[in-house]
TrEMBL record:
Record-linked Pfam families: STAS_2 (PF13466)
Membrane spanning residue stretches: none
Domain STAS: start-end pairs: 17-107
Organism annotation: Enterovibrio gelatinilyticus
Protein name per Swiss-Prot or TrEMBL: STAS domain-containing protein
Length: 107
C-alpha cells in the first residue's frame, strides 16, 4: 500500500510534498487540489520527503506546472529525487520545470 501524499506550507514560505507520488496516491490527491493548490506567485516545492515517484506522479507535477502557468505562477522544484529526474529526462520534459539544482539529491 502506498503512503498517502501530504502537502504543507512551511514557515519559510516553501511548500513540501511528502509520501509516495504514484498511481495509487495521485488520483485522490489531485481531486482535492482546490484544498491545497497554492496561490503564491512564486511556488518552491520541496520534494525531499517524497519516497517514491512513478509516471503518474510525474504527470501530476506536469499538470501542476501547467495549472500554475495558467494562473501566471512559477513553480520551482527543490530536492528533486533522482528517480523523478530520470523520468523527466526519459520523457524529454525536464526543461518544463525550473529546478533548484543546488538541492538535487540522489546524484
Amino acid at each position: 500500500m502506498s503512503e498517502q501524499l501530504a502537502f504543507e506550507k512551511r514557515i519559510n514560505g516553501d511548500y513540501c510534498l511528502s509520501g509516495e507520488l504514484d498511481r495509487d496516491t495521485v488520483p485522490p490527491f489531485w481531486s482535492r487540489r482546490a484544498e491545497w493548490l497554492p496561490s503564491d506567485s512564486h511556488v518552491v516545492l520541496d520534494l525531499s520527503l517524497v519516497k517514491r515517484v512513478d509516471s503518474a506522479g510525474m504527470a501530476m507535477l506536469l499538470h501542476l506546472q501547467q495549472q500554475l502557468n495558467v494562473n501566471q505562477q512559477t513553480l520551482i522544484l527543490s530536492n528533486t529525487p533522482s528517480q523523478l529526474k530520470v523520468l523527466l529526462q526519459l520523457s524529454n520534459v525536464e526543461s518544463l520545470f525550473t529546478d533548484d539544482t543546488s538541492s538535487v539529491r540522489g546524484e
